[in-house]
Amino acid sequence: MNLVAENLSYKPDDQFHLNKVSFNFNKGNIYTILGRTLSGKTTLLKTIAGLLTPDSGSIHFEDKDFLKIPVWKRNIAMVYQQFINYPHLNVFDNVAFPLKQRKVDNQEINDVVLKSLKSVGLEGYENRKIQELSGGQQQRVSLARSLVKNAKILLLDEPLVNLDYKLREQLREEFKNIFSQGLSEESIVVFSTTDPREAMELNGEVIAIDEGKVLQVGSAKEIFENPKTLKVAEISNDPPMNILKATIESNKINFEGIDIKIPHHLYNVKHKNFNLGIRASDIELNDNGFEFEVELAEISGSETLLHLKRGDTKIITSIEEVMNFKIHDKVKINFNIDKVYAFDERGILASSPFGGSYV
Amino acid sequence: MSKIDLKNISHSYNPNDPNPTYALNPFSMTWENGKRYAILGPSGCGKTTMLNIVSGLVRPSAGNILFDDKDVTNFKTESRNIAQVFQFPVIYNTMTVYENLAFPLKCRDFLKDKIEERVNSVADTLNLKSFLNSPARKLTADQKQLISLGRGLVREDVAAVLMDEPLTVIDPDLKFRLRRKLKEINEEFKTTLVYVTHDQNEAMTFADNIIVMSEGEVVQAGTPKELFERPNTTFVGYFIGSPAMNLFESEVSSNDGVKINDTLVKTNTDLSSLKSKNIKLGIRSEFIKIAENQKENILNVDVEKVEDLGNYKLLTAKMGNLTIKSKISRETEVPSHNVRLYIPAEKCCVYEDNKLI
After folding, report:
1. Total beta-carbon pairs less than 8 A apart between chain A and chain B
2. Boundary (domain end) residue, out of B173, B205, B234
3. CA distance A132 to chain B (A)
4. Under the phi-then-psi rule, with left for phi > 0, alpha for psi from -120 to 50, and beta for the rest, what region is A48?
5. DSSP summary character for residue A44
6. Cβ–Cβ < 8 Å for B244, B200
7. Do residue A118 and residue A42 come from a single domain?
8. Looking at residue A334, which CATH number applies to its domain?
9. The pTM is what?
10. Is B183 on the interface with A (CB under 8 A)?
């Protein structure tokens, strides 16, 4: 009794928005659709919801042809990027709305709404007007409303993207708790995001998607540790994984005039030319390291992201601290070579520090 | 390019009331010539009021503003020699991109050659060169915002460029390039830049100095590093950094030590003259480590969860009713129940009534 899609395609213009997408979602689980903006995430969720009809392919839910079931009969709840609430109703009535539509009796509405508001941390806000709430609180109202429907499928389309980072931090954690406690074993949660950190934190099954195509499916940990292609490595890391054109010769890796002894796990790389992948967090400042020039130092949360340049090579490193740098400063860095990845010239993972390989 | 002094500035919308309420509580501050400042705070904290006072759009109820020691408090905006960039693009629809950028210079009778040189230089910086002869109205929203930004930067002689959330409509990739451009422009031309934002990351990335505001009050002004390591108030500790600073209810137990749930933690702060009972110990999750052979400043905690966030692990632990978060490396193995956490004394911040000692 799953949600199963086969070869969903949707091509409204000259590009595929969905390109032969297949998946099998089980009840009681969280699925994270991870991809850049315009990768097809929203299209996929809308197709599940019934707001879009695919050109080809099928979706079955509980063995029934979902595409033949109209939107309002699909028993789906959806939370959008924008906080969608009824501005003329107070918090209680916003959450109660779907239940009133179904003519549920008042006592039950009262119980269900209060329980739902409690689970999203809005106990005591029942009589507030929507305009009196912050963005984060408004999004929680939307979530509470989607929870009272007790839908079998809950779709969340980048629900945190329009919040500032402090609220995002708070809600990310709350969402996870709500999903682990508040949902029944009967529900499927599908959460779309561009943020690999959200995918890691939700810790469900990840579907990495780009240009409407599913690139890889696996646990958040597996996708992070063994990304199948360069594209997956890019979208599953923030900042994106550094990718450098490198060569291997006589047991040395060479790029941009830098020679490093080849680590054990890259012994199986057969071709001379390959793509070397290094995470920003696996590069450290070191006085005995290689000299790079600072292009920009960005501070994100508690990290400093250093954008560095040497010749034509540009890399990003992250430092777990807040530090000051000036543009054009010279810094020296070292690479944690035991943590590097090799992708072949087609961009397929050839070797990973965690043992994965797809060649 | 000027030094800007704000002396005992305050602003109230009911200044004649015997008990006026302040949109901006009294404060004084100096903005040095050629530096980058960000005014940061949640909406409604008074940051736009502060910017409008500097630009002359709002006259403060009290206090003086000096540009290079000259009092401009009573000057109108147009006499203050400043450039402004707003959240949404402001362009002349009937003009070309070139004419838009040239406008502030033309109004001031710059020579044609000079205008051309400046417009080309700014257009080059902002990647607008290929659009110079296009009608401005035909550009996309973010290109229009670049024109607004370009008009702000085209004059080299302005006292300061004031920007109110200027990157809101810009897409993320371009945002990165623009932050870099703004920094470069500042370093090259030594233009004083003042930037209002609610986005912590943007402020921390852009500015040498950040003015954090909350409820009409300047709660801290300092470098990103200072705000991170020594937050002046518990609000700043929460607002800056992710996760927020750990804050523990404490009691003073010696001249430099506090007790958290009966566990003694030494700090490097003199606590001998504290009077309040409302004492909190603040420490960043980056600075809490799993203890090795340290004997002092150890918290015995129960592991609640360990989240693998890819680049690091986040340990959430409980000690009685306290929650403690610690960032640890991905390689660190965490025992499943009890852990000893080490709190380095030199990284502790002590707060009395939510203010840093």
Report:
1. 87
2. B234
3. 13
4. alpha
5. H
6. no
7. yes
8. 2.40.50.140
9. 0.83
10. yes
